[in-house]
Specification:
- This protein is of the alpha/beta class.
- The chain has four domains: 4-142, Rossmann fold, CATH 3.40.50.2300; 158-310, Alpha-Beta Plaits (2-Layer Sandwich), CATH 3.30.70; 315-442, no CATH class; 478-530, Orthogonal Bundle (Arc Repressor Mutant, subunit A), CATH 1.10.10.
- 57% of the residues lie in helices and 11% in strands.
- The chain has helices at residues 13-22, 39-49, 65-75, 90-98, 111-144, 148-159, 164-173, 200-214, 237-257, 278-289, 291-294, 303-309, 328-337, 343-351, 361-381, 391-394, 402-442, 450-457, 461-472, 476-494, 499-505, 511-522, 526-530, and strands spanning 4-9, 30-36, 53-57, 80-85, 103-106, 182-192, 219-223, 229-235, 262-268, 300-302.
- The strands form two sheets. A five-stranded parallel beta sheet has the order 2-1-3-4-5, with helices on both faces.
- α8 packs antiparallel against α9, α14 (343-351) packs antiparallel against α17 and α17 (402-442) crosses α19.
- The chain is elongated and about 105 Å long.
């Protein structure tokens, strides 16, 4: 902890210099930063120096001590004040107490009296600083990884399944300030270029981005699914465009500065003036986001860009087909990384511009065979050795028109994603079960972390975090804390061990931080819980 800054305001120069010189301030952890002969001269100096402690006389010319204290405490609410006075009148002491002065000393002030007063002040400042550190640590632990309740709220928000009243009521319960007259969404994903889940490089970028977005009240980041996030942007409508551009630039900058082989994409929605319009905004962003499968070399997609740049012109023969849409990796990458919500948009855009197939059985035959082959290859690439290919993949009827072709493509992709997700769920369940067993056996280790559990489970930390909250309904930190609190309650009720011992047994190096977390979670201190002063809600 840095030295505590002290400022003295006293009109008698002998007293002021005596207070300044008779105390070895640094020896007691203080730094003397200045003095003034009256409140009027002191005020601008205090505003500039922002001391932690003010020592002031009451009766001074131009501005008395009590007036100075009221102004200073209004502007610097954490400042601690010691009043010195030659008057023993109770009324002065009462007024001093009323405005929150810490100590009231009568002149002549002895060295012993002042040292006793500043040591008491120091203890209070240290305790307050420690408490703030605990609050910051607690908030950081629980904000580092998304809360499941927040994710569920945002999912419902972008689905459009809540009334405006429900939106604001639930946002208030979750302490989310969403009030604004303009909104937008940016959807993005960052992953290792060679893998379908987050790798270490991508996880580091994602963690850095997450911390960066948390610094700005205009942005609220939440997870869309296992592989993608969304940023809710709010502010004045005329600033939304600028805020959106800054958001995209932040994503781009973090990814480009990583100097790693990353596959990253971002898609921008269309701004809206209402929270109730977020469903349409999300739909616009999602439609643009689906273009990453068609144009994997691009990184940023907007509705306007998609409309003006990526709609291929009409064609009337096989030679004029858009070669990019015949790339077999488009289908394979979509089967590997796409989601069901993107299927219809992807299918529609995949066939857009291939108007010649409306009159060409040859083109439809070629595309359907290619699609089937590449879907099977993609499923095998995902580790599905013998894909249980259902009817839509087995019986591709070549005698279909263009509309039926598009619907067949949708059916094939949905079936492929169902197969992929079903197999992935089995594997993910095994991984989560393994991770939970590891946590259950190691939650009392003070160094347990998402990274250590991820290493033990042979999976990247960010991907584990996403799967964990999805299956368990709690973030990793919330689950570990819950396990620790349950064990702590047992030990408090069934043993006579001290709280400090129990803290160590459940994974907390700092007993005071354990007590802080326990009170946050249980609404009472460990000793109050042990004494039965708190009844758990059933």
């Amino acid at each position: 902890m840095e030295n505590i800054k002290v400022f003295i305001c006293e009109d008698e120069s002998i007293v002021r210099e005596g207070l300044r010189d008779m105390i070895p301030w640094e020896k007691y952890g203080f730094e003397f930063v200045g003095d003034a002969p009256d409140g009027e001269m002191a005020l601008p100096m205090i505003r500039n120096l922002k001391p932690d402690v003010l020592i002031t006389d009451i009766t001074m010319p131009f501005m008395d001590g009590l007036s100075l204290c009221k102004i200073v405490m209004n502007e610097l609410p954490d400042i601690k004040i010691i009043i010195i006075s030659g008057y023993s009148d109770f009324e002065y002491a009462r007024q001093a107490i009323d405005i929150g002065v810490q100590r009231y000393l009568l002149k002549p002030v002895t060295r012993t009296d002042m040292i006793e007063a500043i040591e008491e002040i120091k203890q209070k400042i240290t305790e307050a600083s420690e408490q703030q550190n605990y609050i910051n640590k607690y908030e950081q632990e629980f904000k580092k990884f998304e809360r499941f309740s927040h994710r569920a709220f945002f999912e419902r928000l972008v689905e459009g399944s809540m009334t405006v009243q429900e939106i604001y009521e639930q946002a208030n319960e979750l302490h989310l300030n969403l009030s604004a007259n303009g909104y937008n969404l940016v959807i993005f994903t960052i992953r290792d270029a060679e893998q379908s889940s987050y790798a270490d490089d991508a996880a580091k970028v994602m963690e850095s981005l997450f911390g960066h977005f948390m610094q700005y009240p205009d942005y609220t980041i939440f997870r869309c699914n296992l592989l993608s996030y969304a940023v809710l942007i709010k502010g004045d409508l005329e600033r939304i465009s600028k805020l959106t551009d800054r958001c995209v630039d932040m994503i781009r900058q973090h990814c480009e500065d990583a100097h790693a082989e990353l596959s990253w994409y971002a898609a921008v929605g269309v701004p809206t003036e209402r929270l109730s319009g977020m469903s349409k905004c999300y739909s616009d962003a999602n439609r643009a986001f689906a273009y990453r499968h068609l144009f994997p070399d691009e990184h940023i997609f907007t509705s306007e860009l998609v409309k003006n740049k990526y709609h291929a012109p009409n064609a009337d023969d096989l030679d004029s087909l858009d070669a990019t849409k015949l790339d077999p990796m488009i289908i394979r990458n979509f089967v590997r990384t796409g989601i069901r919500a993107e299927v219809e948009s992807f299918a529609g855009e995949y066939v857009a511009g291939l108007k010649c197939m409306e009159d060409s059985v040859l083109i439809r035959d070629y595309l359907l065979v290619s699609i089937r082959v590449n879907v099977e290859l993609a499923l095998r690439e995902e580790g599905i050795e013998d894909p249980d290919i259902n009817t839509s993949l087995q019986s591709v009827n070549m005698d279909i028109d263009a509309d039926e072709f598009r619907q067949k493509l949708i059916d094939i992709l949905n079936d492929a994603i169902n197969i992929r997700d079903s197999e992935a769920m089995k594997r993910n369940n095994d991984i989560i079960d393994s991770a939970m067993r590891y946590i259950d056996n190691h939650y009392s280790d003070d160094d347990i972390s998402l990274d250590s559990v991820a290493i033990a489970s042979n999976i990247s930390a960010n991907y584990l975090s996403a799967m964990f909250s999805q299956k368990v309904g709690l973030s990793f930190v919330e689950y570990v804390t819950k396990k620790r609190m349950e064990k702590a309650k047992q030990l408090l009720r069934r043993t006579d061990k001290k709280a400090g011992e129990i803290a160590g047994e459940v994974g907390y190096k700092d007993p005071r931080y354990f007590s802080f977390v326990f009170k946050k979670k249980m609404g009472c201190t460990p000793s109050q819980y042990r004494n039965g002063e708190y009844e758990e809600k059933k």
